[in-house]
Amino acid sequence: MAWRSKQFNLRHSNRSSQQIHITGVSTLSEIAIPGLPIDSSLILPLMVLHLIIGGIAAVVASRKGRNLGLWIAIGAIGGTPSLIAALLLEDKS
After folding, report:
1. Within a 10 A sphere around the Cβ of 73, how many other Cβ atoms?
2. Which of 37, 58, 64, 76 makes the best surface tag, with the fewest CB within 10 Å?
3. For 49-78, how does the pLDDT look when each residue is reduced to its tens digit (9 = 90+)?
């Protein structure tokens, strides 16, 4: 995996210059957690799975008497944790 480093020169009011190195990511395949590289071909399927799990959470919460629209948003953001929360909800009957 090749990380690209870019240099920028900044000038301050006292006319001194400092160099700053910024590591840039140009493609999704370059994103990595130390020791855990993320393959870019997995990003889309994982996002879809996240949204499906969030949708299931919304349906579970709706059947327990909760607001479906609100739980669609919670599920889309939260994914698996929102499903766990929806499963732990009490019925609102």
Report:
1. 13
2. 37
3. 999 999 999 999 999 999 999 999 999 999
